[in-house]
Amino acid sequence: MPSLKGGISSAEKNIECLEECINMWYKNGALTTRPGFNCKDKNYVFFGEYYDKIHSGPRNEGVKIVLNGCEYDVASAVISDEYSFYKICTFFIDSDGNVVNSGNINYNRINDETFYAPTRYFFVSAKPTYSSGLYLFVTSENIGYEAGVDYQIYEYSYDEMQWQRLYNRDFYVPTVYINGRGTSYLQAQLNGMEYDAEPMVLQPQNLLTGEFKCYFTSDGYSSAFKLPLGELDNEVIKCRIYTKADAFFEWVIHTDETEATTAFAGYDVTLKCDRAAGVLEFFLQGEAFPILAMSLFPSNNICIKAQKTIPDGLERVVGGSFARAFNSRIYIGGNKKYLNEIYYSRMENPLYFPSDGGINIGENSTAVTAVAQKSGELYFFKTDEIYKLSVTHGKSYKVKDFTFNEGEKLFYSDTVRSTLICSSIGALSGESIKICNGALVWQGNDGNVYKMTDSNKNIINLSLPSESFISKYPKADFALFYEGYYMLFFGKDVYLLDLSSDKSSANEGNAWFYWELPEKVRVNCGVSSNGKMYLFCTESGERIIFAAELDGSCDEQLYFENNTVNSEQLDILSGFTSLYYDFASPQIKKSFDALFLTAKGNGEITVDVGCEQFLCYFNEQESKLKKDNFETLRINPNIKGENGIKFKVFSNKKFSVLSFVFKYRELGEVH
After folding, report:
1. If you ran DSSP here, which 8-state letter would residue 95 be given?
2. pLDDT at 278
3. DSSP conformational letter for 290
4. Helix (H, G, I), strand (E, B) or coil at 307
5. How far apart are the first and last CA of the chain?
6. 418, 344, 328, 327: which is closest to 381 by C-alpha?
7. 463 close to 470: Cβ distance less than 8 angstroms
8. Composition of the chain by helix, strand, coil, percent to 5
9. What is the band of 401 on the pLDDT scale with cuts at 50, 70, 90?
10. What is the per-residue pLDDT for 148?
């Protein structure tokens, strides 16, 4: 038996397969005990001494940030005493598994009626607005006596090393209208007005803010200007008339007011607004006052900023549950109310989500559950469908004679669509989706593991129906790709699929292995980088989050007791049971004289050899192995008159098995 790489399941039971295997994997040509949890330098985060505990997490957000030339993974956890406060705690994790606390966002009880708690949040890294370009979108709900929902967006600040909330004033204000004309434009045209550019609805409104800008051209005849939108919010309206690029007159009509007066061209000119009709008109001493044409700015010299909130605009964007930055845009989905809708930002600004920037992914009765990127393509998953994103780039253009210190000069008009590529396979969440050897691998809604190749059309089932150890779980907590293995974490249970041999399907013999994690810790998430893997755990008291590098000879776990953080080291019980081998002649009785085991280890191993049903053990031998070098041990089972043989090897110390050799004699056929 030159190899034990078959794992606990494959297409056909052959001599490389195992009946049982725990806490081992096939590594460097040998079946080897898994690496242990090594809590280097006691790398942990402790949360208080009283009632505050880990409410949820930690979780790897699947987002990276570069600070001072060092790349970090972003992780988070929610801490609460469930009575007076909740807080989102964020962490940066470097390539050595070190955890850096990057700030908290606090939610405190105000009174019995008002107590907001974060219920959904997600991160995305995109073009900076003010600082780092790392954004956090949060939905918080009032768990007090009064109902209410709030939506917040934060950006991480390099300088202050904390999260800064972004408000309405920070979001991109689109220019929805240019080349606007006054109500007396036709009269001005009859009297020789030269400017005749057509009005244009330019940019859609921003879902994040109701504010918008419109540009009109003064013609010397028009005193009233109608906005393309009516039923305006009862918010501030600003109007500027430019005389130079950096010189203007401004009227500000405040909330609950309908007019404002400003000195203009030597007169006290009043601007009145009709918010319902969306009309603004200039007056001088109660009479309509036409705005003169400007010689330096023959067009778009009047800028009006107003506000009209889009119903559920913030909810549609911030109320999602996942995001992905892709080709200079942010794509957001997973909204519990708008199930199949994806919203995307404009390329010019990550905080501009146009009102027409939404696409439907399939039927609205089923939700979009995940997003994934592979080979320059973006895919959206539903529970039983997969869609591919496509973008058709429209023309870009500059606005002629556009006032250059207002708004954007360059605009894009692109079309975003989704195409169904699979109607039977989906994913329950994005936690299991990983790029493995250049292919997209994930756990499907049926519990099986699938792979999408570079053809983008060929989706392969890597699981066999007999592998019920996978399908019995509703869904994985998360997945990692490490050392050629696709690893699915289900609480204390971890199943590893060996993808190092690049088998194209389950029928070609993909091998599975099983790990059992320590009892006193809960593994919440992990990262794999620079050839290392780190798991982030919480201890049973829910007071400590700690990072464990997977490279130890035993398991180290931290726990909180007597107001102290303590550590404990646990042996790893590992081993395997072979199949029953009859050596292709089951009807022939045999005498098994010797078993040669080539192995190495840190201590003693136990080898049990028996017959098919293991009704009894014919031989039990403890053998001490060398730590660094393989050696061959001879075991004499002295089993006679049996058709076949099986064996079991186990130890609570780390060991590796390179191969087995049987020596047997045929005794003849027994009738």
Report:
1. T
2. 97
3. P
4. strand
5. 29
6. 418
7. yes
8. 5, 55, 45
9. very low
10. 93
Token pair belonging to 556: 């180290």
At 405, is the pLDDT very low, low, confident or very high (cuts 50, 70, 90)?
Answer: very low
The answer to whether the CB of 275 falls within 8 A of the CB of 190 is: no
- Asked if residue 539 has pLDDT above 80, the reply is no
Cα 609 → chain centroid: 48
Euclidean distance between CA atoms 188 and 18, whole angstroms: 90
CA Rg, the chain, in Å? 34
For residue 581, what is the DSSP state?
Answer: B
- Helices assigned H by DSSP within 449-535: 468-471
Contacting residues for 295 by C-beta, under 8 A, at least 6 apart: none
- Residue pair 411/202 in contact by the 8 Å Cβ criterion: yes
Cα 509–514–516 angle (5° rounding)? 175
Each residue's pLDDT tens digit, 632-655: 888 888 788 888 888 889 999 999
Q: Is pLDDT above 60 for 16?
A: yes
Write down the mean pLDDT value for the chain.
86
pLDDT (tens digit per residue) in 203-237: 899 999 999 999 999 988 999 999 999 999 999 99
Give me the residue label for tokens 């994806």.
342
**What is the phi/psi pair of residue 611, to 5°?**
-90, -170
**Cβ within 8 Å of residue 247, ≥6 positions away:** none
Give CA–CA dist 536/524, Å, rounded: 6
Q: Is 211 exposed, middle or buried (0-12, 13-18, 19+ CB in 10 A)?
A: buried
The two structure tokens encoding residue 8: 């606990």
d(CA 155, CA 131): 7
Q: How does pLDDT run across 468-510, given as a tens digit for each residue? A: 677 777 788 999 999 999 999 998 899 999 998 766 555 556 7
Write 391-396 long-range contacts (CB < 8 A, 24+): 391/327, 391/415, 391/416, 391/417, 392/416, 392/417
Give the residue among 111, 78, 113, 72 at the shortest CA–CA distance from 94: 72
* Confidence (pLDDT) at 588: 86
Cα 420 to Cα 380: distance, rounded to the nearest angstrom? 9
Residue type for position 507: N
58 cis-preceded (ω within 30 degrees of 0) = yes
Length of the chain: 671
> How confident is the model over 64-93, as a mean pLDDT?
90
CA distances from 665 to 50, 482, 582, 594 (A): 69, 43, 12, 10
Cα separation, 57 vs 537, in Å, equals 9
Asked if 227 and 214 count as a contact pair (C-beta separation under 8 A), the reply is yes
